[in-house]
Amino acid sequence: MSQNSNHLFCFGLGYSALVLARRLKAQGWTVSGTVRPDTEKDHGKREALQAENFHVYDFDRDVPLVNPGEILKDVTHVITSVPPGKEGDVVLDHHAADIVACNNLKWLGYLSTTGVYGNRDGALVHEDDKLNPSSVRSTQRALAEKRWQVLWEKFDIPVQVFRLAGIYGPGRSPLDALRSGRVKQRISKPGHIFSRIHVEDIANVLIASMTKPNPGRIYNVCDNAPEEPWKVTTLASQLLGIIPPPLVPFAEAEMSAMARTFWLDNKRVDNSRILKELDVELAYPDYETGLKSLL
Questions:
Q1: Other CB atoms within 10 A of residue 154 CB
Q2: pTM of this prediction?
Q3: Which residues form the NAD-dependent epimerase/dehydratase domain (predicted)?
Q4: How is residue 199 annotated by DSSP?
Q5: Average predicted confidence (pLDDT) for the chain
Q6: Do the Cβ atoms of 38 and 248 come closer than 8 Å?
Q7: How many whole angstroms from its chain centre is CA 151?
């Protein structure tokens, strides 16, 4: 995976894509990608990425790529992590034809979510199971997945879909949440579990897929240890040497409407396809290993 002729383009140089981008840049790849036009939230991001020698372009719903044919002409790999909205998938809306016109494209990864499965009352879900999203955001993801798969079916674009579990890593973990004081409670909902994935293992899975591409394939991306969230917060507290926040029954917990949507689904996610088909060896196979590494 170190050929200098490889060029990765990231629609959305965000948290997960940037880990992959930096790994491949270190191997001699050319890496380009998009950021949203400068806002207060993202102020200085473009300049920071340019300082790392990434080629950076503005892009969002109101700002499509300028001269996309030139920007994408020698791209060999594309990853898209831009979430769809109520209008649809902005990358496809603006640049589906430009992607189809990429003559050198070897691999395209679409980052989706395990939320597309919906609630299974703790049962195991596999990539071939029927989708049943239970939130608006997950429904939008499921629709976007189908649109990306059409590029493979109709135009032979090498699309692979990656359904990510809850992402954590440096700067975005239960340890960081506790340190910041944002966590006021641990929520108890017996039997309700979540799957997780360390951001470095997302990059491991994507690189493994690039090495052994299988257009049209869908992969669940999660670790081996789904768990009730309060137990993860308890371990993080222990690692930090602090008293855990109080344990509160779900029915009594105070949380925003957005936060409550994350509790709609209860499922275990089957990750055997990435382990067996892509020969991935997870660096952080469970949350305990991951949290200890972040400490």
A1: 9
A2: 0.95
A3: 19-222
A4: H
A5: 95
A6: no
A7: 20
Helix, strand or coil, per DSSP, at residue 159: strand
Residue 121 resides in a domain: yes
State the residue range of the domain holding 68: 7-168+197-224+268-284
Q: Tokens representing 204?
A: 């491991």
Structural domain includes residue 247: no
* Residue-wise pLDDT tens digits, 80-91: 999 999 999 999
Number of separate helices (H) and strands (E) present in the chain: 11, 13
pLDDT digit string (tens) for 125-175?
Answer: 999 999 999 999 999 999 999 999 999 999 999 999 999 999 999 999 999
Place of tokens 């029915």: 251
The Cα–Cα gap between 161 and 109 comes to: 6
Other CB atoms within a 10 A radius of the CB of residue 242 amount to: 11
CA distance 169 to 63: 30
Instruction: Read off the pLDDT of residues 159-215 as tens digits, 9 standing for 90 and up.
Output: 999 999 999 999 999 999 999 999 999 999 999 999 999 999 999 999 999 999 999
CA dihedral 193, 198, 203, 208 (to 10 degrees): -60
Q: Is residue 77 part of a domain?
A: yes
Dihedral angle sign, alpha carbons of residues 48, 27, 13, 19: negative
Residues with Cβ < 8 Å from 269, sequence gap 6 or more? 114, 117, 124, 125, 163, 165, 195, 220, 222, 226
